[in-house]
Amino acid sequence: MELQRLVFSFFNAEVAARYWPDIVYGMWVTTYLGAAVIAAGLAAGLGLAMLRSFHFRPASFAIVLFADVFRALPPLVVIIVLFFAFPYVGLAMSAFTATWLALSLVLAAFAEEIFWAGILSVPKGQTEAARSTGCRACRRSRTWSFRRRSGSRFRRSPTA
Amino acid sequence: MLKGIDLAVAQGELVFIIGPSGSGKSTLLRCCNRLEEPTRGSVVVDGTDITRPGVDINRVRQKIGMVFQQFNLYPHMNALGNVTLALQKVLGKSRAESAEIGIRALARVGLAEKASAYPNELSGGQQQRVAIARALALEPRILLFDEPTSALDPELVGSVLKVMRELRESGMTMVVVSHEMEFARAAADRVVFMDHGAILESGRPEQIFSRPEHARVGEFVATISRQA
Questions:
Q1: Minimum CA–CA partner of A157 in chain B
Q2: How does pLDDT run along chain A (160 residues), one tens digit per residue?
Q3: Measured between beta carbons, which residues in chain B are less than 8 angstroms from residue A126?
Q4: Quick check: helix, strand or coil at residue A79?
Q5: Contact: B122, A160; criterion CB under 8 Å
Q6: Residues A111 and A145 in one domain
Q7: Which residues on B lie below 8 Å from A160 (Cβ)?
Q8: Distance (Å, rounded) from C-alpha A102 to C-alpha A106?
């Protein structure tokens, strides 16, 4: 048994103390990046889903294409392309920016499909009822799909 | 779908539209608030040509109430929420003011005490009356009814017809697509018979029901009456 070597390699207090600040900094960067990706990805996804609800064909086609491509591509590939390939066409960006952009695009693609499914799940009659009282399209989707999916009352089975 | 429709509804009039399914009754009704876009022709409501390009259709729709066959209540909101949503979101009224108007509208359909009930806790007839209150809350100039009682159990139909009769007595202008012949006979000012997207005959209820000019109308009325 070489316990001493094991402790030296894996439980080395001196090394841990030396790199502790880097680890904390890394955790901060990861958290910060994660928050930025969630904010940008969800916002972009919601925007795209709402754009799609206007049923303007060229726009819908572009959105579907975007969502399908970015849901299929491994995020790592996107990061590598952004960081290593884009400088060749004069689009150099920092590692942080490249990672943020890549992960945001991927999340936007997934989020768009989720929001779109939510919008589609609102029965046509409810949309018509809203329109018949003068509600505008964008306001409608905001109030409805959000509350509907978060509201537990919706899940109860109808009695009548 | 619709051809050569020429129909004028006077203020305070109750016009009943009957006809076989697929005859374009609902389409005609839905053209009146542009839930269906007419390809040609014009629809004038309260002096505004609502088919004119550039018209603010959402503004126009506030003045045109609509009641649907399937009620189309928002299932995640209680009765008062259903009634006040447009007041708050479209007219921008405060929560308190909306609630006051909403309760008044619910009282008109006899459901003030059900304000906090959710649609799935209400019977079909009550749901439809909430839907009527939702339309009434915006103080429309005209109410459109698209088969308001077709989805109801027979014993619940009466409560909805009662509300419609009261609205009629209060002078509301109404266009009703329905197969409730008894109600048409009793309450309608005019009955319009549609077939194949056109108006085949229109006149006083007693004329349409008792001595129609077209054999097709008589046949239809006889069939429906036999079923009732």
A1: B120
A2: 789 899 998 999 999 999 999 999 999 999 999 999 999 999 999 999 999 988 899 999 999 999 999 999 999 999 999 999 999 999 999 999 999 999 999 999 999 999 999 999 888 888 899 999 988 754 444 454 454 544 444 434 444 3
A3: 72-74
A4: helix
A5: yes
A6: no
A7: 120, 122-124, 127
A8: 6
Flag if B62 and A153 touch (Cβ within 8 Å): no
With CA atoms as reference, the chain B residue closest to A124 would be B72
In a shared domain, residues B52 and B155: yes
**Which residue segment(s) compose the domain that A93 sits in?**
12-121
Assess whether B121 and B19 both reside in one domain: no
In this prediction the pTM is 0.77
Six-digit token string for B10 = 């006077």
ipTM of model: 0.83
Nearest CA in chain A to B30: A132
